[in-house]
Design brief:
It is a single chain. The protein is mainly β. 15% of the residues lie in helices and 42% in strands. The strands form three sheets. The chain has a seven-stranded antiparallel β-sheet with strand order 3-2-6-9-10-5-4, covered by helices on one side. The longest helix is centred in the N-terminal third of the chain and has 13 residues, at 4-16. The termini are far apart.
């Protein structure tokens, strides 16, 4: 059996080898405060009905606002938006004052220039080892570009080359 520290390092190494899309979760909490954070765990749960999940660390300042009924936007970043990823992850200044955004009809902040965005409503939150799995229904959104920012092996990538362009799949 692998020791705990070895398992942690193996898990980190393996997961660093798995490319992830980069998104910024934005919301306006019940007190009207805009909140946001960079996420790389946006995942489809189902298409019928449309739902996604994201994982949020327990210490994240936005985490307490993510309760059932709360709306948020999952902003899928474009290749030229590494500054937004870094700004929402380690902001020294209010990222909403730095990056362009507009409000959805309910006030949820939607970042400008993204590849796509999903407007979501939290349905369920489950705590697991200090991380919160947030499951949400998809209420709407848009796909505005065909490219996206990718995080792989602790670096950002903006272009991906198909290795088997004739093979198409559908999740």
């Amino acid at each position: 059996m692998t020791a705990d520290n070895d398992a942690v390092e193996i898990c980190r190494s393996v997961m660093a080898a798995v490319p992830a899309g980069v998104a910024v979760m934005t919301l306006q909490d019940p007190e009207g405060v805009r909140r946001g954070m960079t996420i790389s765990s946006l995942t489809i749960v189902s298409y019928e009905p449309p739902s996604v999940l994201m994982c949020i660390g327990g210490a994240a300042s936005s985490r307490p606002a993510l309760v059932p009924g709360q709306t948020f936007c999952a902003n899928v970043l474009a290749p030229d938006q590494t500054a937004q990823s870094v700004g929402f992850a380690w902001a020294e200044a209010d990222p909403f004052a730095v990056f362009e955004w507009s409000p959805a009809p309910d006030g949820t902040p939607v970042l400008e220039g993204t590849t796509a965005h999903l407007l979501c409503t939290v349905e369920n939150v489950v705590e697991h080892h200090g991380t919160y799995v947030v499951m949400a229904g998809v209420d709407g959104g848009s796909l505005d570009r065909e490219d996206a920012l990718v995080y792989w092996k602790q670096a950002y990538f903006g272009e991906m080359t198909p290795v088997a362009p004739d093979i198409k799949g559908r999740w």
